[in-house]
Write a structure and sequence with these properties.
The complex is a heterodimer.
Chain A: E1 2-8, E2 25-29, H1 35-41, E3 51-54, E4 57-58, E5 70-74
Parallel strand pairs in A: 1-5
Antiparallel strand pairs in A: 1-2, 3-4, 3-5
Chain B: H1 3-16, E1 18-21, E2 27-31, H2 33-42, H3 47-56, E3 60-61, H4 68-71, H5 73-81, E4 84-88, H6 92-104, E5 108-112, H7 137-148, E6 153-157, H8 166-169, E7 175-178, H9 183-196, E8 199-206, E9 209-215, H10 222-226, H11 238-241, H12 246-264, E10 273-278, E11 283-288
Parallel strand pairs in B: 2-3, 4-5, 4-7, 5-6, 7-8
Antiparallel strand pairs in B: 1-2, 8-9, 9-10, 10-11
Classes of the chains: A mainly beta, B alpha/beta.
Chain lengths: 80, 295
């Protein structure tokens, strides 16, 4: 298993398994898990999570999570 | 301006100058707005010309006195007066950004928006009012800026940016402020700024949330935030959540600070960093958008 730190921003805080919060939390995932697996585990619909940054760098859905990664997940904002 | 005209203005300035007292009691040579207007009329030149000659001679237009500590004295103010900044999108972000840039004395502004004011703008768009519903946002911004600082020269375009007009519209700008409300045109603008060698200050808002980053030509910028543009991602969560009065003002202010930093070469830009602001929890997150070893 690998341990990943997760932070859910803005409207995604409601998917925090410990209750609605934007506080960081840790999640254990099987080795070989991807961002896509992480989103499924957290039950975050893909349309709500266009931006996933691993260790501050944008990554695509097939990125292989590493032990100790920090995943920051944002909903896209584009208003002006 | 011809040299003999400049010399005549310099002479006339001598009698127009008064002694000013700064809040810390130091004295300075001040030029009042009324004196500026009289000189511009007398010499048939712009207020901006008068202000530039004044500042070059250590005379401070009173209107900028409180800014000098921020912009780096007369030289900083001169640099702003000689700069050109584009504001693309004149809604919640752009209406305020344009006004703030004018108050700071950025000498040339390019204002672009094809939209008109509607009632649903009244909750957050600074320049909208019950009296100007239905009027073009760009025309309203021009009038407002004239009232705030008539030294500012403006090019005003009452049209939306498109692939075919964007390069021409922002042609003279050193910095462009991205105050748009959709990703399609935001990407167009970034591409154009890269071609035109202009810095782009991006800002976006949704409900309690906002983000800002500064993109220099060649930076990944929006690509590093949103990934490659796809038609279905044109809008973000603001489509469902809307925007209040406050987040446009917050983000527009941060954008204007970035513009000033670019123009004045001060501080550390939010370059390759996205500042994501969550006012609901009072948190900010900085996301790195590029790294040393990135190509």
């Amino acid at each position: 298993m690998i341990k990943v730190e997760v932070v859910l921003f803005a409207t995604l805080r409601k998917y925090n398994p410990g209750g609605e919060s934007s506080e960081p939390f840790y999640l254990e995932m099987p080795e070989g898990s991807t961002i896509d697996d992480l989103l499924k585990t957290l039950k975050i619909p893909v349309r709500e999570s266009k931006q996933v940054f691993i260790n501050s760098r944008r990554q695509e859905w097939d990125y292989l999570l590493q032990n100790g990664d920090r995943a920051a997940i944002f909903p896209p904002i584009a208003g002006g | 301006m011809r040299e003999d005209s400049s010399n005549s203005i310099r002479e006339a300035l001598k009698s127009a100058v008064r002694e000013g007292k700064a809040p810390d009691e130091t004295s300075y040579r001040k030029l009042s707005l009324e004196a500026e207007q009289a000189l511009a009329a007398k010499f048939s030149c712009s207020m901006k010309d008068i202000e530039i000659i004044a500042l070059e001679n250590n005379i401070i237009p009173e209107r900028y006195q409180r800014s000098l500590g921020t912009v780096g004295g007369e030289q900083g103010q001169l640099r702003l007066l000689k700069s050109c900044v584009g504001v693309v999108g004149l809604g919640g972000l752009g209406g305020l950004a344009g006004e703030l840039l004018a108050r700071m004395g950025v000498g040339s502004l390019v204002l672009v928006d094809g939209d008109t004011y509607s009632e649903s703008n009244l909750n957050r768009q600074l320049l909208s009012s019950q009296e100007n519903l239905g009027q073009k946002k760009a025309a309203v911004a021009r009038e407002r800026i004239k009232q705030v600082n008539s030294a500012v020269e403006m090019k005003v375009y009452e049209e939306y940016i498109t692939k075919s007009n964007v390069d021409d519209l922002i042609d003279s700008c050193q910095v462009v402020v991205d105050c748009l409300d959709n990703l399609k045109t935001r990407f167009l603008l970034q591409e154009s700024c890269a071609r035109k060698n202009a810095a782009l200050v991006h800002g976006a808002i949704a409900q309690f949330y906002g983000q800002v980053t500064t993109i220099l030509p060649g930076d990944k910028g929006l690509l590093a935030i949103y990934g490659a543009y796809k038609e279905e991602m044109n809008k973000g969560i603001e489509k469902q959540l809307g925007n209040p009065a406050t987040t446009p003002a917050l983000v527009a202010s941060l954008q204007v600070q970035e513009v000033l930093k670019v123009l004045l070469n001060k501080g550390t830009l939010l370059r390759n960093r996205l500042l994501y602001i969550d006012t609901l929890d009072g948190n900010c997150e900085q996301v790195q958008l590029a790294f040393e070893n990135d190509k």
